[in-house]
Amino acid sequence: MADITLIGRASGHDPRELRAAEIPAAAAALTAVPADAWSTLAARAIEPNGYYLPEWELAVNASAVGRTGTSALCAWNAAELVGLMPAISMRRAYGIPLPALVSGHPYGTLCTPLLDRNSPAAAVASLLRAAREAGARALILRDMSLAGAAMTAIADVLARDGLRPRVLQSHVRACLDATRDAEALLNEALGAKKLKELRRQRNRLADHGAVSFAVARSPDEVAAATEIFLGLEASGWKGARRTALIQSEGDAAFIRRATRALAATGGCEIVTLRAGATPVAAGIVLRHQDRAFYFKIGVDERFAKFSPGVQLTLELTRHLCAHPSIASADSTAAPDHPMINPIWRGRLAIGDVLIPLRRNDPVVSLIETTLRARLAARQLGRRGLQFIRNFRS
After folding, report:
1. Which of these, 78, 92, 71, lies nearest to 10 by C-alpha position?
2. What would the DSSP string read from start to end of 150-205?
3. What pLDDT is attached to residue 23?
4. Torsions phi, psi of 164, nearest 5?
5. When comparing pLDDT for 149 and 133, which is higher?
6. Is pLDDT of 56 > 70?
7. What domains, with CATH codes, occur in the chain?
């Protein structure tokens, strides 16, 4: 039987005492997971998640604003790590003091846990048992891949115990089938007329210097390209709103550390589009197994009429489709994203899922009711804000 542990006990608490209170949030929580075991699990994971690779998540945990001090549910089979889920308390995630653990948010919009493909059912059972031992009555998996192998394994284990996952909210977002021919895919997605217009814009961009597309791969190349990306991101509307990564010391430290560390293992590329010597767009792309993850893009808005973000994404599409080891790419973008959705026509179902840990538990019903009410209130608030914006315009 797998050995189950809750990493993050530096405070000295017995997990059975942790009911509605916070789970331990010691700074060394995630670093207590052996890096080699974590990396080995990532290589064997039943479903890829570039945002739960140790190089990325440890960098997030070290300095990213609001995302430090995360603990981890771990499942071991002898000396092998077979399951890992970064976790925080429901109090910390939502400000609600109920006994549930919530997947730790790794800055990217995907929190699918890592499960060993050789023993996914045992890994899931061990993680659920670890959560119960920590005093949780439910798990909340935020930004979970709903149709992937990990969710299937979780649902199968729950069914054995007479339980079922409960989807709290869901949406679809753009993804790319990178096994296809890029030109055929782009023509099908955008049509000849739109592609002709984009070629015209690219030709006008070339008036400012020869247009080139570059891929940074080595740690030194990625470190230099990260600075270009940070500058571009801060030069636009994100900088005006004070939400650019470089405008927070902790966030800037996280992205610099994460991209360089992942580049050393082949897990990160930074793509850049230039007009002459001038960078006009740059994007960070993570890689895990046969999937790419399009993390963020920065553009020079002085060139907005040439659609630099779209031009970069067209080149990235060609680059990924030409790569023999990449089968798909997750945009990790918002649903109905106006830039990526027309280009990448595949769709990936993502949602927040409540996992009950006991049958007929009234506390689980309370947790579900509370979260659904919170979601309804947020949606109502967004609709009200949009109505006000439309009225003023």
Report:
1. 71
2. HHHHHHHHHHHTT---EEEEEEEEEEEETTS-HHHHHHHHHHHHHHHHHHHHHHHH
3. 40
4. -145, 150
5. 149
6. yes
7. 3-172+349-392 (3.40.630), 179-326 (3.40.630)
